[in-house]
Design brief:
The structure holds 2 protein chains of 2 kinds.
Chain A: E1 4-7, E2 11-14, E3 19-23, H1 34-42, E4 50-56, E5 64-70, E6 75-80
Antiparallel strand pairs in A: 1-2, 3-4, 4-5, 5-6
Chain B: H1 2-5, E1 20-26, H2 30-41, E2 47-50, E3 66-67, H3 74-88, H4 90-94, E4 105-109, H5 112-127, E5 133-135, H6 137-143, E6 159-163, E7 167-168, H7 171-185, E8 188-190, E9 195-200, E10 205-210, E11 213-222, H8 228-233, E12 242-251, E13 261-264, E14 269-273, E15 279-285, H9 297-310, E16 319-329, E17 336-339, E18 345-349, H10 359-372, H11 396-399
């Protein structure tokens, strides 16, 4: 089976209702070097375990939201709209 | 006659790990074993292949066994063509029957746009001497007489990219053949040996930590497909890779009805018939990343629906089993192959859904790289550095749909 995500607006829906937006990535500093910019654009942690990630409720309210999912079990521990997530790890390198 | 009753081992069970190897290959799949074998041909025999699970338990044993070289970019087409040519004589080289059925590969076109793209691919292929051409519906029907080509299909077949050298090969046999050859060449194969860390010293790999102890290593090869970012993390090398599942299923064995490989990009499905008679159907990767190799009901529903559009006579065939494997997908659908910023740390990664068909050429080129220290010209375009220099090799047109 696949899994179910809790849309912050609409409630629980099957994963096929959503578009996956990838892991949350740390933005580079304001005037990044070319290498930092390429790292930001292409390189991924691809974590095995808890991962913060973007989802888009494509077949529903069309909101973008953040989920924490364990990529080894596909268990989603929480979802929230971006404005409700205090630390999005964007300060990290 | 006595030989028939003797128990043959494909490779020798090994005792404890040595304290030091010239080359440690992480991952006992097709790429790792092919590299070990090719290293032994070059006289480099102090080599260990470390596999967390059993040999061939990852993508090497889960792929859909399709070989082809009709890629979109000259860099890609040239590379995969060299691989198919090595595959053609691999059974005799390894002295092991690989059950290669080189009966042709058809990528169906259902729209004007895909007709255009396939004609373009055929031109790129032909310029490189690869047998590949666009054919109309009549010729498609002649090559696949049991497939529904005419009629009122949802996705009408307007033609196909026909690639005669394409086909299917027994994937487990490729793994076992390479494992036996690597073992005979002197490499040690250690299943159930998990790499837990890699040590560096002065920007160079120095040792590998495993669940069975620490071994010094001159060169470490990361050939772990879906797990490659986790292994690269151990030395601080970042990769532009995400891990996704790809699923497939087989029906019960049926009488022969299909000897070519059928791919439909629009329907996200590819179909072949195995030597056992099973209809083997694969699909598209799931868009979300995961390390959990469980299948989805959605895949079975979509893949069976699309298979029935092409082969309605399968409506009562039973699905025997389905499975999932991990794919290490790169942004440009081309592999990441060769040296990294850490001396002695070599990667074979970013294989997405096309790693199996590259096995022999990965073995020969990586062995050459390790033996000589120079990157073979054939794999220069696939260096990790390309993501920092805007020189991507986009195979999206020919590989974004897995087949």
């Amino acid at each position: 089976m696949s899994f179910v995500l809790q849309c912050p607006n609409c409630g629980p829906r099957e994963v096929t209702d959503f578009a996956f937006g990838g892991e949350l990535t740390a933005r580079p500093r304001s005037r990044p070097s070319e290498r930092e910019l390429h790292t930001y654009v292409y390189m991924r942690r691809n974590a095995a375990g808890a991962q913060l990630e973007w989802w888009h409720h494509r077949s529903g309210c069309r909101a973008w939201f953040i989920a924490q999912r364990d990529t080894t079990s596909n268990l989603v521990s929480w979802t929230a709209l971006p404005e409700d997530v205090a630390d999005r790890g964007e300060g990290a390198a | 006659m006595r030989d028939l009753l003797r128990r043959h081992r494909m490779w020798r069970p090994r005792g404890e790990l040595r304290s030091s190897y010239d080359v440690v290959i992480v991952g006992g799949g097709a790429h790792g074993l092919a590299t070990a074998y090719e290293l032994s041909k070059r006289g480099i025999t102090n080599v260990a292949v470390l596999e967390r699970n059993y040999i061939g338990s990852g993508a090497a044993g889960r792929n859909t066994t399709i070989l082809r070289s009709n890629y979109r970019t000259p860099e890609g087409a040239r590379f995969y063509d060299a691989s198919v040519k090595l595959y053609e004589q691999l059974a005799s080289e390894l002295d092991f029957n690989l059950l290669f059925s080189q009966n042709g590969h058809l990528t169906l076109a259902h729209t004007d746009r895909s007709v255009f793209v396939m004609r373009e691919r055929a031109e790129v292929n032909r310029l490189l001497g690869i047998d590949s051409r666009f054919i109309g519906p009549d010729e498609v029907q002649a090559l696949a007489p049991e497939m529904q080509v005419r009629g009122d299909a949802t996705y009408p077949i307007m033609g196909a990219l026909y690639h005669p050298p394409g086909g299917i090969i027994r994937h487990d046999a490729v793994v076992w053949g390479y494992a036996r050859a690597a073992d005979r060449g002197g490499a040690e194969i250690h299943p159930y040996t998990e790499v837990t860390g890699i040590e560096t010293s002065g920007g160079r790999v120095s040792a590998v930590q495993t669940n069975r102890g620490r071994v010094a290593a001159g060169t470490v090869v990361n050939a772990t497909a879906g797990w490659s970012t986790l292994v690269a993390d151990m030395v601080g090398v970042r990769l532009p890779i995400t891990t996704h599942i790809l699923q497939a299923f087989v029906t019960e064995p049926l009488k022969p009805l299909l000897d070519v490989v059928i791919v439909s990009s629009q329907m996200h499905v590819y179909i072949s018939q195995t030597d056992r008679g099973e209809i083997l159907v694969g699909a598209e990767i799931e868009p979300w990343t995961t390390y959990r190799m469980n299948g989805t009901l959605n895949f079975l529903q979509e893949a069976t629906r699309h298979t029935l559009e092409l082969f309605p006579q399968l409506e009562h065939a039973n699905v025997l089993r389905s499975w999932a494997g991990l794919c290490d997908v790169s942004p440009d659908y081309s592999p990441i192959l060769g040296l990294t910023d850490v001396d002695g740390f070599v990667v074979s990664a970013g294989w997405g859904t096309y790693g199996f068909k590259a096995t022999p050429i990965v073995g020969t080129t990586l062995a050459e790289l390790i033996a000589t220290g120079r990157t073979p010209q054939l794999i220069e375009p696939f260096a990790l550095e390309r993501f920092y220099t805007d020189s991507l090799v986009s195979e999206a047109a020919a590989a974004a749909v897995s087949h």
